[in-house]
Design a protein that fits this description.
The structure holds 2 protein chains of 2 kinds.
Chain A: H1 15-28, H2 33-60, H3 64-72, H4 77-85, H5 104-110, H6 116-122, E1 125-127, E2 137-139, H7 148-153, H8 157-166, H9 168-182, E3 193-199, E4 205-211, E5 229-231, H10 237-247, E6 251-257, H11 263-269, E7 275-276
Parallel strand pairs in A: 4-5, 6-7
Antiparallel strand pairs in A: 1-2, 3-4, 3-6
Chain B: H1 4-8, H2 10-18, H3 21-38, H4 44-55, H5 61-84, H6 93-112, H7 117-128, H8 135-143
Helix pairs in contact in B: 3-6, 3-7, 3-8, 4-6, 5-6, 6-7
Classes of the chains: A alpha/beta, B mainly alpha.
């Protein structure tokens, strides 16, 4: 099974030698082995993350030439030997393996139309996190947070369109789960994103997505599907969808959010009669 | 996969895709130039990066990493301020300022790194979300494509 694109460290040609030199310079300058190793390890991680991100950007943009050049430019195992010889604990070094790695072309064709996490799930692989929350498949378990049912719907727009009519609640839950998994980890507890299935006067349904962030900002890694529309609002994701729907003559069929729906949003949703498919935040007790 | 910029300016992304590398870099550069005219971010690492951007030189990995750290720090401050607000209130002015600064620094980081269609698009998107009306940025970017 192919699937390993990048595992852990991803240094480019010449970087292991450069880091080995930095380590020896640090030691020569009187630094302790531990301090120098930590400093070099830290830089190795930063470089590795930058390389992963560059590869992720190239792949996401469909720039196959750039992606392939980055894959071709990976340092090989022999180069990591320089780091080992310089005294960096080999346990800290996990080289990116060439064996079994897929090419950018293969990757792009196999993931066409899917988000990275959806693709990881579809292939039964584990998504390896990177700085921007994209990229990288390693053989392992499915990405957490997406159900088997969700997997089937991801990337199959006709099924999604069907769900909007047949089971809008399921669609909302699936999209909320997927979007939640795409929000960078350090922002997950601090951003609320809303998803709603809405229906126009002709009975045509569509999907609205909103965020608690200013100006409708989407964090890197968050991707929308064809036909979905971002609603820009004032900071309460679900209430912003209600305002948009009211202003545009749309009926909200189903709505959900990546965090429990707050009291003010519950109050905004209530008159619309929409079903709320994700947890609600308990309402504050009335003052005596 | 839909690029974030495509969600707001699909036609611009189409133009960006057809542009050569120089045009893509110019597009990212002009977006950064405009955003830093609108958003004040006074940090040495930003000032140095802006100078290098205008000279057309690429930043080192350490500089890019420093910009990313600064953007993350500004985001953290923005989130902290937001969390302190009453749940019923909407965005506060100081939080919005920090958010805008984080987006501007992030735009700079994308614009100064390895050039690709994606990084140019990301720089423009980040820059456009740093200001209330991104139209001016989009128009300026289109003028170099």
């Amino acid at each position: 099974m192919v699937g390993i694109v990048v595992e852990n460290n991803f240094l480019t040609k010449g970087e292991p030698a450069l880091l080995a030199k930095k380590l020896s310079d640090c030691l020569a300058a009187g630094g302790s082995q531990a301090a120098c190793q930590i400093a070099v390890q830290k830089e190795m991680n930063a470089r590795s993350n930058a390389n992963k991100e560059a590869l992720g950007l190239a792949m996401q943009s469909g720039d196959q030439g750039a992606a392939q050049a980055l894959l071709d430019g990976k340092a090989d195992d022999g180069e990591y030997a320089a780091l080992r010889q310089a005294g960096v604990d080999p346990e800290l070094i996990n080289t990116s393996r060439d064996t079994g790695a897929i090419t950018a072309q293969e990757w792009l064709s196999s993931c066409q139309g899917l988000s990275w996490s959806a693709c990881a799930n579809a292939k039964g692989n584990e998504q390896i996190g990177s700085g921007l929350g994209w990229l990288g498949l390693g053989v392992g378990t499915k990405t957490a947070g997406e159900s088997e049912q969700g997997l089937k719907s991801v990337g199959t727009s006709s099924l999604e369109r069907g769900l909007a009519y047949d089971n809008p609640s399921n669609l909302v839950q699936n999209r909320v789960n997927e979007i939640q998994s795409q929000i960078p980890v350090n922002s997950q507890g601090r951003i609320t994103m809303g998803v709603a299935v809405v229906e126009d006067a002709n009975g045509v349904r569509s999907v609205l997505v909103s965020t608690s962030e200013p100006r409708g900002y989407l964090r890197p890694g968050v991707s929308l599907q064809e036909g979905e529309k971002v609603v820009v609002g004032t900071g309460h994701a679900e209430a912003d969808i209600v305002s948009y729907a009211n202003a545009n003559g749309l009926k909200i069929v189903d709505i959900g959010a990546t965090r429990p729906v707050c009291a003010s949003c519950q109050n905004a949703i209530e008159p619309t009669g929409a079903n709320v498919s994700t947890p609600l935040k308990p309402l504050p007790k009335a003052k005596q | 996969m839909i690029m974030r910029l495509e969600m707001v300016e699909k036609s611009l992304v189409e133009r960006l895709k057809k542009a050569n590398q120089t045009q893509q870099r110019d597009a990212a550069r002009i977006a950064c130039k405009l955003v830093f005219q609108a958003v004040s971010v006074d940090f040495p690492i930003v000032n140095d990066a802006l100078k290098q951007l205008h000279r057309g030189s690429k930043l080192t990995i350490e500089q890019i990493s420093g910009l990313n750290s600064l953007a993350a720090k500004l985001d953290e401050q923005y989130f902290d301020l937001q969390d302190r607000l009453d749940n019923e209130k909407s965005l506060d002015v100081d939080a919005l300022r920090l958010f805008s600064q984080a987006r501007a620094v992030s735009a700079l980081s994308f614009a100064c790194g390895e050039l690709s269609l994606m990084s140019a698009a990301e720089a423009i998107y980040e820059a456009s979300t740093a200001v209330d009306d991104g139209t001016r940025i989009f128009e300026a970017v289109l003028s170099v494509l």
